[in-house]
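User: Here's a structure from my thesis project, written as structure tokens. My advisor, Dr. K., wants to see whether a designed sequence matches the one we expressed. Can you design one independently, without my sequence as a hint?
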């Protein structure tokens, strides 16, 4: 069970809704993923213009918890304004805080992310900040009262997978709130690795929406996250330098 603030979810896959080839493929991918949380950029969808098509019209909204994000914001002020816009539309009181500090790498601005998160917590939002894999920053965000921490595995949309597993492990080990690995996942194996490290969930978009077959990839990610979580809970065997017989030596015939 994934718990974020007052919400509880069976699925540990959070799925982005951007960049799909069309609404049909998007809907099929969402359905097969069995994700319960869908994220979208408020700035890229006019949620108040009923004459404009959007993915919300294609889905049974009652089945999902929507996680609007503040993508496009470059300052804390912009992020707060965007979050309030989403809340005013009645979609959800949960928000992914995303404040980009570098247009080339799309890495988050740590100072503005802290400012935005602090302000939105004061406003009563359930706050999930997207951050780098900075261990101390993750702790600062948790200490502020954020309801989950969302460190990137690698730059947004890069598909590089987890480039710093050590820092992710440190973040996970010190956290008392859910840690959801966000950004950079490229393959199901990346999602499995994140879960094996002890992450509580994975948020991804491009790995599914830009795959040759987004629907199959959505199913693959669902299974990968489930397998990774089970593997983490089961506890893997330690790595050794030499081989160890898989059958017991006791009682072996000496003939």
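Assistant: Designed independently from the structure alone:
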């Amino acid at each position: 069970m994934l718990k974020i603030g007052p919400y509880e979810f069976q699925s540990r896959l959070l799925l982005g809704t951007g960049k799909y080839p069309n609404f049909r493929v998007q809907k099929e991918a969402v359905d097969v993923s069995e994700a319960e949380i869908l994220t979208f950029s408020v700035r890229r969808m006019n949620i108040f213009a009923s004459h404009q098509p959007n993915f919300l019209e294609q889905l049974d909204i009652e089945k999902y918890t929507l996680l609007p994000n503040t993508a496009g914001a470059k300052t804390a002020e912009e992020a707060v304004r965007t979050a309030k816009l989403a809340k005013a539309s009645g979609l959800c009181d949960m928000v992914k805080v995303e404040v980009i500090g570098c247009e080339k790498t799309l890495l988050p601005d740590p100072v503005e992310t802290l400012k935005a998160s602090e302000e939105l917590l004061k406003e009563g939002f359930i706050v999930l900040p997207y951050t780098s894999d900075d261990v101390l920053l993750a702790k600062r965000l948790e200490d502020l009262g954020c309801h989950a921490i969302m460190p990137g595995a690698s730059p947004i949309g890069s598909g590089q997978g987890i480039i710093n597993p050590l820092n992710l492990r440190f973040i996970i080990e010190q956290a008392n709130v859910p840690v959801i690995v966000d950004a950079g996942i490229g393959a199901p194996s990346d999602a499995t690795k994140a879960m094996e490290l002890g992450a509580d969930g994975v948020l991804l978009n491009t790995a599914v929406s830009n795959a040759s077959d987004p629907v199959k990839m959505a199913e693959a990610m669902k299974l990968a996250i489930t397998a990774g979580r089970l593997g983490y809970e089961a506890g893997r065997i330690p790595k050794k330098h030499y081989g160890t017989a898989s059958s017991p030596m006791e009682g072996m015939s000496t003939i």
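When you compare it with your expressed construct, this may help: The first strand starts at residue 2 and ends at 4.
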